[in-house]
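Input/output pair, single chain:
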Amino acid sequence: MPDTEHPTNARATPKPIDTRAPRYVGGYTFVLAIVTFVIALLRPIEASLGARVLSPEFILLFVLWLSFGAGTFFGNGAHPFAVVFRTLIRPLLHGKPQVDDPRPHRFALLVGFVLSTVGLVLHLFGVPYGLAVLTAFLIIASFLQAFVGLCLGCQVYLLLVRAHVIRPSSPLLA
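Output:
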């Protein structure tokens, strides 16, 4: 049986991803995060919980939270912006794509999921500018990913693997 068909080896070496996809996802994340940030800064926080849940900044960050969650828990390809890239954008691109290990990118989605979760919770508890501050971190990370090609979450992942804090074969990251 070839190594690629053995279940343990298949888990250790997940299917590589097109390196252009995370940059595309970062671009969309950047745009949504900027809009969320501006709205959060311009609007005072609502007094009631119901009004906070229905506020535009909460809804926009919730959309990002759902997309981070899809990518984190179901794989990079399940991220809605990655689906758009794979079905609409990649067929228009020429040349052979460079590929990369998906685990660091999935960890980066986990970081985005955690940051957006904290921002949503702070907003629900009525913490002024809590959502804006956490969204600012998403703006920085997505800007670097989309326009510089630097994945901060990937760098954190690599540091944690090198420090033996996490294993690359962790079930959530495989």
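The radius of gyration is 18 Å. The chain has a mean pLDDT of 89.
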